[in-house]
């Protein structure tokens, strides 16, 4: 079983995932009160969102106020709540939807009213059964005018990409279009972002900024996996250190030299417990939080094999629209598998940068570039293992 | 005079058929990413374009000589509107339909940039309809089906068209697929 | 439109199907990767502009675009 596999579990912070569960609609209203009235392009609310510094929680960290204002300026608008979470190592959106769907639905209502959308949709992966059921039940409890359309979307990696998702909810294949939906009046927002929006609408910018750092305020959900006692979804203050995060998950259960930050589009880094989980701190290492998938990769597992496995997965998950991705990613996976097998290692090592140059920035979406970053950082962090594999050995206890 | 007209109609017709067959086969060769005599691939597309435009010239001559010939008894309307009254109405109608389609093919291709790729591509599929209609019209008119040279020419055109269409089915490489394959 | 400055050639990778005409018509500007897809490696200088326009018109998928 892959070291990156995770499953859903305990939550430890109370903004988005209240301990003991968020309950049904009545409990939700009792806790937060009724949603404040929101007018189209409500200047006070837009100002509050801007002041809060809320950014997208889906991975791109785009300033939410900017996106809302851009869409609100269009004549015909619609809103899509993105709960698809195509990244296999990420569980935060599914957990949020399963445990606190009403907060997400609140955020969807707020966003829809702000941009003047007549129709709103919430998209969930078809095989996220618990999340889909919880959302369905929650929608049924809402007043009729607050009910979005629920769409189940095939569970493919690129299905969570904004323009691919817009295609999917419109009944077309979930493939990216190369254009940003907000330019055409469609607001696509990650479900976690909407949950935060619902709270900012009620409690204001200052409250939101009471957590996190000055440049990256607020809390965020993270999926923590790997060699920790209690892997799962955790709500953390932005700026928390890696060491503190792992401690909240019960601490490390075995020695860890490397971590993956950002999931399959992320970067491998040498494990440093003092590393702060903020985009600002990570930028110095060429990394970013992404969708906040953080894996404590145990010394006993084979990093190279993991890199090769994910590269092959990403090659298969290509939308098949752009040549360099369709042909380049499988070739990259081939080279990585050769390195893992210790077959013609030198030729494979020479192949990787040549492939990199032909793939980088030549797709219509971030899929190939995300994969390249994952692979490149993996080969750097696990460089010492390449020679072992060349000789036919591996320090890992288990090896494919 | 009428005899000369008669010859002109038929000869421009046969040349049109040959050129349309050439245009069709070159178009399929372009789609199959084939090369003419080892030349760069853009040459295949360019020659296809030239052959198509040349075939338009001869089709126009064929239509003009038909209209000018009182014995052919074909009205202008019958030339463009399949089914309008004329002598040998069925075969004229097929010719008229073929003419309409060829005109659509050429006009949309000349305006390709303005119409956008999808519209152009959808219309271009009509090529597979326009050729059989032109062929049926040629043979159906019956003017020369008795003579050997015409039969040989028509057969050669048919063979070329069938071979080209067959190659399109067998050889066609759509480019991007999820399994890796060499394109160059 | 001033013809004195360089133009940029953009490839729409969603449309491109590796026919390769652009590299044949504009070898100083376009190279092909190992799968036949174009890499814009050079600038479209004023002397190359006419050929660049021909390449844009020739592309079977209309995947090329010239911009300032």
Notes on the structure:
The complex is a heterotrimer of chains A (400), B (184) and C (68). Chain A folds into 3 domains: 25-209, NADH-ubiquinone oxidoreductase 51kDa subunit (Rossmann fold); 219-298, Ubiquitin-like (UB roll); 303-390, NADH-ubiquinone oxidoreductase 51kDa subunit, iron-sulphur binding domain (de novo design (two linked rop proteins)), CATH 1.20.1440. Chain A contains 15 helices and 9 strands. Chain A has helices at residues 25-32, 43-52, 64-72, 92-99, 101-115, 129-141, 162-169, 191-209, 242-248, 279-283, 303-316, 323-341, 345-359, 367-381, 383-390, and strands at residues 78-83, 119-125, 149-153, 186-190, 219-226, 232-237, 256-261, 267-270, 293-298. In chain A, a hairpin with a 5-residue loop joins strand 7 (256-261) and strand 8 (267-270). The termini of chain A are close together. Mean pLDDT of chain A is 92; it is low at 1-12. With 184 residues, chain B is mainly alpha-helical. Chain B has helices at residues 2-31, 41-68, 76-80, 89-110, 112-115, 117-124, 127-141, 148-171. The longest helix of chain B is centred in the first third of the chain and has 30 residues, at 2-31. Chain C has 68 residues and is of the alpha+beta class. Chain C has one domain (8-67): 2-Layer Sandwich (Alpha-Beta Plaits), CATH 3.30.70.20. Chain C contains 2 helices and 4 strands. Chain C starts with 7 loop residues before the first strand and ends with a strand. The model of chain C has no long low-confidence stretch (mean pLDDT 93).
